[in-house]
Amino acid sequence: MKKISSLLLLFTALSYAQTPCTNGFAGQYPCNGYNLLSHITATTMGASGGNDTWGWTDPQDGKEYAIVGLDNGTAFVDITDPVSPVYLGKLPSVTGSATARDIKTYNNFAFVVSDNNGNHGMQIFDLTRLRNVTNPPETFTEDVLYSDFENAHNLAINEETGFAYACRTNLFGGGVHFINIQDPLNPINSGGVSGVLTHDAQIVVYNGPDTDYTDREILFSYNGFDGDVTIVDVTDKSNPQIISNFSYSNNEHAHQGWLTEDQQYIIMGDESDELNLGLDTRTIIFDISDLDNPTESFVYFGPTAATDHNGYVKGNTYYLANYNAGMRVIDISEIGSGTFNETGFFDVYPDNNASGFNGAWSVYPYFASGNLIISSRGSDGGLFVVAESLLETTSFEDSITFEIIPNPSNELINIQLSQSVQLLSADIYDNLGRQVFQSKDSTSINISSLNNGMYFLKIVTDQGSFTKRLIKI
Questions:
Q1: Which helix (H) or strand (E) holds 357?
Q2: How far, in Å, CA of 305 to CA of 456, rounded?
Q3: What are the structural domains, with CATH classification, of the chain?
Q4: Is the dihedral of CA 373, 375, 379, 380 positive or negative?
Q5: What confidence tens digit (pLDDT) does each residue in 421-469 have?
Q6: Is residue 351 helix, strand or coil?
Q7: What is the model's pTM?
């Protein structure tokens, strides 16, 4: 009986967690090219809403974890099996509820700040503790609380140098506070920079086209309602030097930006221009080939009026959390010629695509698996795990053209076809769309070599292509 119950639980979890993007929707969520692998609501994680997200991969075993900011704490979710994620527990907020929380990682530790009216400081949490969770969800405590500042709106970390940068704290006039975290359990106050009102920042060891600053540690400060960007050399923490300060057309709120991988361009969003100026989603691109004299290169307008929030670059792709319009995926390979091209999206807020502050807060695109995590506001928001769809089919799941017998199975499966249907090929794909088995025309397949979990069996016939879920146990 226990074996049957476990099998039923596995089948139920896998069958209802993943929803493919077909005909423009994954369940209730509008989509283009991205499947929904799983969704854990903020309510499930004991919160009223979500905010930021980041990721961590355990170097010991390659397991992938989503770290999710909530209004009342920080959640940790094992997404190694993205279809059946495990909510491991929560690190409660130091000072209660907060709209904004920000998380980054360094050297197997998570660093968490919160933007509220209390003395939250920066929580430091040893992520390797997640290996030993036996009875989830647990309530965690931080390993260290750094309290030299009260609260911070954002946090940036330069993993190359081992420094954290707390943005818009009560220190340095709302600028950036430097913290040496090379020994994460013994953080050291290392000063800061004033004269800027930093909303968010990115810090790199510079290796871009301006050779005057090669190997210098450069901070890019996005200054919110000041409507400008400041570039600062922070190599010498005791004597930071402002390199340049620049604005842009129709500036409302310089919210957040990210460098291209060649460090020649900044891709930045203005959080208030859609709402205040009635624009479609506007992304501003700056040419920073000369750090002393940056220029506005061009502007990209998205297909909706939704407000933009956090965006990140991976290779030639820009992943944008676009609030009401969800996650937008943009090809930036032609940035040199002033061209962006949206290639896909997954909309976590199906109500509308208007300007405003519901829906996708952030997206994390850096897992080796290719899975993406999106954090979303509201009690029914929380964490979404999605992946690019690589399967194109005439029909998914509801086809009466064929059956898989037995399903679930641990060894041999048979494809039972409707009369007059001719099988041309049968292939099995994992939940990332990777082909794991190929057969030309056999209706009998041995799956004993596959790992347990959910797969897709796609058949091509003389009447079209069809796909069904397959469970290996």
A1: none
A2: 36
A3: 22-388 (2.130.10.10), 395-472 (2.60.40.10)
A4: negative
A5: 899 999 998 876 778 888 777 899 999 999 888 888 989 888 888 888 8
A6: coil
A7: 0.85
